[in-house]
């Protein structure tokens, strides 16, 4: 409470919130921002998130440590074939970014919004994050009104969650799977799409620096594998994932991917140690496993 001309005025705390989307989903992202303007401090990704001469992954990693909540817009931007079926899917980088923020904030502080009735192929590792839906084909084309129910769910979370952001591991509800089962699931996912496709790209070679990746394919692949292994590393370090099975399957990949990513995403002339501070779980686990002989 603050005194104002003899009266007590309640100071309303508005937590910072990140809104991510593809370029195609920006209209929805800005409508979310308008609806939540007085409940939090919402920032849409083009609004100063990415710095000149910086790398997207570094900037996103920093923002995942600045904000307390995140909302991502899932729109059917791509069509892919998975196991013989043609399905609509979300842009890979949007899914990757959501995973990055879940790792930093926990699943109860992250949301994704998608059109009602859309049959989008979603990665299995989004289980536990509740989708918020909206009617995209309203006759009056009132997008803010269509997003009202979804925004109200976010608004409730803003009010109920404590100010301090707990670790993703401590916030998550107790999983029904054992650490060994979770590790086995990750091993299976490692050999499935989209991670398998990204690994194929990396096997063909990765430029020394992001500035040398002219078509962006290697950067997208490295980002996908980095996010997967970073989430796995967080689980191992917090005891949610069986360390022995994970090390057998991922030790070499963890060390190699962290070695590649360490300098790859840092702006030319920048200090990688400073850019990656605090160190992500992948870095911590890579250092631990590098000292263990296979």
CATH topology grouping of the largest domain: Rossmann fold
- How many domains comprise the coordinates? 2
N-end to C-end Cα span: 59 Å
- What is the overall shape? globular
CATH architecture of the largest domain: 3-Layer(aba) Sandwich
CATH superfamily of the largest domain: Flavodoxin domain
| Average pLDDT number | 83
What class, by secondary structure content?
Answer: alpha/beta
Low-confidence stretches: 167-175
Task: Tell me the helix content.
Answer: 40-55%
Total DSSP E strands: 10
Q: What is the helix tally?
A: 12
Rg over alpha carbons: 20 Å
Oligomer: single chain
**Tell me about the biggest sheet?**
5 strands, parallel
SSE string: EEEHEHEEEHEEEHHHHHHHHH
> At the first level of CATH, what is the class of the largest domain?
Alpha Beta
Strand order of the largest sheet: 4-3-5-8-10
The fraction of residues assigned to DSSP E strands is 5-15%
Q: What do you see in this structure?
A:
- The protein has 294 residues and is of the alpha/beta class.
- The protein has 2 domains: 13-170, Flavodoxin domain (Rossmann fold, 3-Layer(aba) Sandwich), CATH 3.40.50.360; 174-290.
- Helices cover 46% and strands 14% of the residues.
- It contains 12 helices and 10 strands.
- The protein has helices spanning 26-35, 56-66, 92-105, 143-146, 148-160, 168-171, 179-190, 195-203, 217-237, 243-264, 272-275, 281-290, and strands at 2-4, 7-9, 16-20, 41-44, 69-73, 78-82, 85-89, 110-115, 120-121, 131-134.
- The strands form 3 sheets. It has a 5-stranded parallel β-sheet, with helices on both faces. A 3-stranded mixed β-sheet has the order 6-7-9, with no helix packed on it.
- A hairpin with a 2-residue loop joins β1 and β2.
- The radius of gyration is 20 Å and the shape is globular.
- Residues 167-175 have low confidence and may be disordered.
């Amino acid at each position: 409470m603050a005194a104002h001309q003899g009266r007590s005025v309640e100071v309303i705390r508005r937590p910072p919130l990140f809104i991510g989307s593809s370029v195609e989903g920006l209209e929805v992202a800005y409508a979310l921002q308008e609806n939540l303007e007085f409940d939090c401090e919402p920032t849409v990704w083009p609004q100063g998130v990415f710095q000149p001469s910086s790398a997207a992954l570094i900037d996103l990693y920093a923002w995942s440590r600045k904000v307390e909540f995140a909302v991502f817009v899932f729109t059917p931007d791509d069509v892919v074939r998975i196991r013989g079926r043609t399905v609509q899917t979300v842009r890979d980088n949007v899914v990757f970014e959501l995973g990055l923020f879940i790792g930093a904030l926990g699943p109860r502080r992250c949301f994704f919004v998608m059109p009602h009735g859309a049959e989008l192929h979603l990665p299995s590792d989004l289980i536990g994050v509740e989708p918020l839906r909206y009617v995209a084909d309203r006759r009056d084309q009132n997008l803010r009104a269509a997003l009202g129910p979804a925004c109200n769910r976010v608004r409730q979370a803003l009010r109920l969650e404590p100010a301090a952001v707990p670790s993703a591991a401590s916030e998550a509800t107790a999983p029904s799977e054992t650490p060994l089962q979770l590790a086995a699931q990750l091993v299976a996912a490692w050999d499935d799409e989209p991670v398998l496709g990204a690994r194929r790209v990396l096997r063909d070679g990765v430029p020394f620096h992001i500035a040398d990746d002219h078509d962006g394919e290697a950067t997208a692949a490295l980002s996908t594998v980095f996010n997967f292994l970073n989430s796995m590393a967080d689980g191992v370090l917090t005891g949610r994932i069986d360390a022995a099975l994970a090390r057998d399957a991922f030790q070499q990949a963890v060390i190699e991917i962290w070695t590649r990513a360490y300098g790859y995403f840092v702006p030319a002339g920048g200090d990688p140690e400073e850019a990656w501070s605090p160190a992500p779980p992948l870095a911590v686990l890579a250092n631990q496993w590098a000292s263990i002989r296979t």
